[in-house]
Amino acid sequence: MKKVSIDRRRFIKLSTLSGGGLMIGFMLPGLPSFGQTIPDCEFFQPNALIRISKNGEVTIFVARQEMGQGVNTSLPMIVADELEADWKKVKTEIAPYGSMANGAHDTGGSQSVLTDYTTLRKAGAVAKAMLVAAAAKQWNISPDKCAADNGTVVNTTNMKTISYGELVCVAATLPVPAEVTLKSPKDFKLIGKEQKKSNLKDILTGKAKFGIDLKVPGMVYASIERCPVLGGKLVSVNDSEAKEVAGFIKVVTYEGTGKPMHVRPGVAVIATSFWAAEQARDLLKIKWDVGQGYKANTVELFNTMAVRSKQPAAIEKFKKGTVNPIKIASQNSHIAEYKEPFLAHATMEPVNFIAQVKGDNCEMWGGLQLPDWTVNQVAADCGFKKENIKVNLAMIGGGFGRRLHFEFAIEAVKIAKQLDTAVKVIWNRKDDIRFQGYRPANYHRLEASWSKSGELQTWYHHVLSTSIAVMTDGPQTPDPSENQGGAMADFYYKVPNVKTGYTNVDFNINRGWLRSVEICMNSFPVESFIDEVARKMKKDPLAFRLSLLDGREMFLVGEGPGAMKQYPQRIANVLKLAAEKIGYDRPRKKNHFIGVATHSFIFAKSYAAHAIEIELLGPKNFRIKRVVAAIDCGIVINPDGLKNQMEGGLAFALQQALKGEITIQNGKVDQSGFHNYQLLRYNEMPPVEIYTIASEEEPGGVGEVGLPTVAPALCNALAAAGYRPRSLPLKNEGFSWG
Amino acid sequence: MASFQLSVNNKSFSVEAEPDMPLLWVLRDMLDLTGTKFGCGVSACGACTVLINDHAMRSCQVSVKAAAGQTITTIEGLSEDGTHPVQKAWEKVAVPQCGYCQTGQMMTVVGLLKQNKRPTEEEIDAVMSQNLCRCGTYHRIKEAVHQVIEEINK
Prior knowledge:
The complex is a heterodimer.
Chain A: H1 8-27, E1 43-47, E2 50-53, E3 58-62, H2 71-83, E4 90-94, H3 112-139, E5 146-149, E6 152-155, E7 161-163, H4 164-171, H5 200-204, E8 220-226, E9 233-238, E10 248-254, E11 266-271, H6 274-281, E12 285-289, H7 298-309, E13 315-320, E14 333-340, E15 352-358, E16 361-366, H8 371-382, E17 389-393, H9 407-416, E18 423-426, H10 429-434, E19 442-450, E20 456-465, H11 468-473, E21 497-504, H12 517-536, H13 541-547, E22 555-557, E23 564-566, H14 568-582, E24 592-601, E25 606-618, E26 621-632, H15 639-658, E27 664-665, E28 668-669, E29 688-692, H16 710-720, E30 736-737
Parallel strand pairs in A: 3-4, 8-18, 16-17, 20-21, 26-29, 26-30
Antiparallel strand pairs in A: 1-2, 2-3, 5-6, 6-7, 8-11, 9-12, 10-11, 13-21, 14-19, 15-16, 15-18, 19-20, 22-23, 24-25, 25-26, 27-28
Chain B: E1 2-8, E2 11-17, H1 23-30, E3 49-52, E4 55-58, H2 64-67, E5 71-73, H3 85-93, H4 102-115, H5 121-128, H6 138-152
């Protein structure tokens, strides 16, 4: 059984395991939803990923969840390349839940491509080998006289061809080969070539169905009033006025749950339309007992963190050499503290979910990034046997980690248990902004010292945050720390004495994984502080970084099979490329300033740097003139998908740098919509250029690597202009931009 | 409940609804035209944009009563097969990531260009800045908008 608790460090292990599981899973015949033997041989299905029809149409099933990151294109490209399929005849479908081994549908941590790369290639190669064998049998020649090409098999002796469609009946009768040979990367035809999203046309015509668009016969709608403070209880509800709303059906209530998902107690209005449910909800009179949680206040939280940051860390994360505390900075040392607020996902598709309970059976419809865990937890929290829960996955209108959490699924099932029809729960935007698992608030203290001759000697980094693992695992979590991204053994600059630590600071609000998570949280202080140190040492911040990276050997982070490789040289290379492309060494116009930052998204084996040029328009008023991003993610599957992720990552990270902030007073979130949780807008998107390092390394993930260096590069540009922002978002520091 | 006659995508529909029910929910839940998206319900994101008498409107802010008798166009009625110049430009530039906001983005552009075939940069900025995209496709939206303007003014 899958572990019910997961964090990002565990995620990689799970994903690695599930990759192996997928391999076994799709080699087994007779999988659910996929008949292996097709009597009338309408199609050939060698495994759960590929189905080839008589008319030559190739269907590739995508197990990972599509939410904008492009896996519905990149993953099929990998299969189709080995299959030698005609891409124009390839269509993609969501792999039915249950058709794959455990973990195959898990989608997060930028892991899909890098986890599935070899598995998907093998799946394609198996199908190709069987089609080639079928043609050889048909022609009565040896398979080595045959070659697959663009959806056909060619007889290399006489150059006759036969299409895949014509081979399905024969191929379906052949044994599945145990071993297959994979192509040499130099022979890739699809991988590395720009392809448009496989469902692009459906999106553009309004036909694409997201979870919120699904309908189930007899379905009713629910809108939920939740306890405003985490940990509170329902005292009473009066629905006498709500009942008068046309379309009102009934009110159902349910209790909250604790870890891992922290579902709040709810009062759900059931109605014939979502609109009616919303109208009736506004008329409910509810009394809550908010318990002790009402004391939570983010101003106090940051005050606590600031005080605590100066004390020794609760957990030592990494130690090399000797690092003594620095209380007061001198000419040869530096101290700085940084802070970043809670952040919300705010996906454009508001969270929604459909559930139906019939006796002992539960069926669910909607988008889930971790459906296995969801099934396990719904079984545990709502009293079903796992095997009695059916999941129908749907496309997700923006994930960013929001649907790694699944409290909405537990809510929907708790409600469905009290109804005799299917129910669709929709969170309105206010619910979305006020009740999710937020990216942790975090605070950092860094100290560094150097010799008189200008050699960096010590580096100290104390990370403080409201740990996610404390919420998902409980306070007894074996490891609450959030230090990845240069605040643990992955610290990539060459410094002889290093010490890093972590302290969790309790706070009564739920936390969750938001795109780039702790690597984004830590890159801001690490890449700002190295810049500060360089400037204080009167060294060029770019050259100073490179002097601590260039030529440095790969080192391992962690031990055993979970160990990750850190390549300082690749971190240097992306930085050099970004700096070169923005013209770092060229003369600049008056009032123009450039900031740089680099990092490794070690967890997804990708590297990126940003160089940002700003024009200072007036005091604390700037315009972003140009953004250059450089990335090394090994072999690129779909260059257009990569560009999309880097462009989108910039927009996402700029929102965080400029204006993203969730604040809490009296245990309640202050923000309630797009008017006070502002997203980046069209007119705020700067010109952006993306450059890629050509590489033959195994592909890395690209969904998150475009974020972490945006805020530090921007703040370093502001530092070059005479400012040094150490607290995000910049709107709170008196900055304005145009 | 009252009965309303709606003209949507050149078809006539009769719906029974509360007069103040927003057109958004009538389209989505009663007529099954789910290409029009719910994003915020308060005219703050533009995901629900449709054309009413050739003007881009937020369907979450138009009651079914007010929409009755007007000419309504949703993304499903923009073209038979996705070949409206705006859809073609969006396809060529490969704008969408998750795609959720894109029907609203496109309908906003269609509405803008129905009123003015050659909007200035400031006019485009003012209009498009009211449509949100969390995936951050603004860079490509900008490129696609300029391609459409060039195309329709050829």
